Amino acid sequence: MCSIIGYKGQLDVAPLLVNSLERMEYRGYDSVGIATINDGKIILKKGVGKVADVNKRLDLGSLPGDTGVGHTRWATHGSVTNTNAHPHYGCTDSIAIVHNGIIENHKELREELIGIGHIFKSDTDSEVIAHLLEKYYVDQKNIKKAVIDTCKRLEGAYAFVAVFEDGTICGSRYNEPLIIGSVDTGHFISSDILGFLEYTNKAIYLENRDTVILDSKTLQIFDMEGNPVNRPITQVAWELASVDKGKYAHHTLKEIHEQPVIVEKAGTQNLDRVKEFCNIVRNSRTVFLTGSGTSYHCALIAKHLLSNFAKIHAETMVSSEFQYTLDGIDNTSVLLAISQSGETADVLQAVKAAKHMGARILSIVNIPTSSLARISDWFLLIECGPEVGVAATKSFTAQLSLIYTIVDRLCNGCLSFEADKAFLGGALREILDTEIEIHRIAERLRDATDIYIIGRSIHYPIALEGALKLKELAYIHAEGMTAGELKHGPLALIGSNSYVIIINPNDTTSNDNIATAHEIKARGATIIGISDRPNDVYDIFIKIPSVKSIFYPIIEVLPFQILAYYLALAKNADPDYPRNLAKSVTVK
Ligand code: G6P
Question: Quick check: pTM over 0.85?
Answer without folding.
Answer: no
